[in-house]
Specification:
It is a single chain. By secondary structure, this protein is mostly beta strands. It has one helix at about 20-25; strands at about 5, 15-20, 30-35, 50, 55-60, 65-75, 80, 90, 95-104. The protein contains one helix and nine strands. The strands form two sheets. Strands 3, 6, 7, 8 and 9 form a five-stranded antiparallel β-sheet that branches. A hairpin with a 5-residue loop joins strand 1 and strand 2. The chain is globular, with a radius of gyration of 13 Å. The model has no long low-confidence stretch (mean pLDDT about 95).
């Protein structure tokens, strides 16, 4: 499943739904969406666990921008995860790996 984007006609905002499938999160019991839109605050945007074991979160992003983000897995498994369906990726020398990108 790709990132789902809903552009609002009433203002320059896009609602973006992020989703990870159960097999992507492994044993993690918590997942957080972390990125430029929440100042990389690791606890600001917890994702909601779905009945099928996946996780989802929806955020409103200002249009005309590109945002860097990653997922933080916690609980039964831990670590950082990129979105395999992101719009693109960019190397981050600070982390030594790529960040996922979403364009709105």
């Amino acid at each position: 499943m790709a990132l789902t984007k809903q552009f609002l006609k009433s203002r320059p905002v896009c609602k973006v739904k992020f989703r990870l499938e159960a097999d992507e999160v492994g044993q993690a019991t918590e997942v957080f969406l972390v990125g430029e839109f929440n100042d990389w605050d690791e606890r600001a945007t917890p994702m909601r666990r779905l009945k099928d074991g996946g996780f989802t979160a929806e955020v409103e992003l200002e249009t005309g921008r590109e945002y860097r983000f990653r997922y933080l897995l916690a609980g039964g498994a831990s670590g950082w995860l990129n979105d395999g369906r992101a719009d693109s990726y960019e190397y981050c020398p600070f982390a030594g790996t790529d960040n996922s990108l979403v364009n709105v």
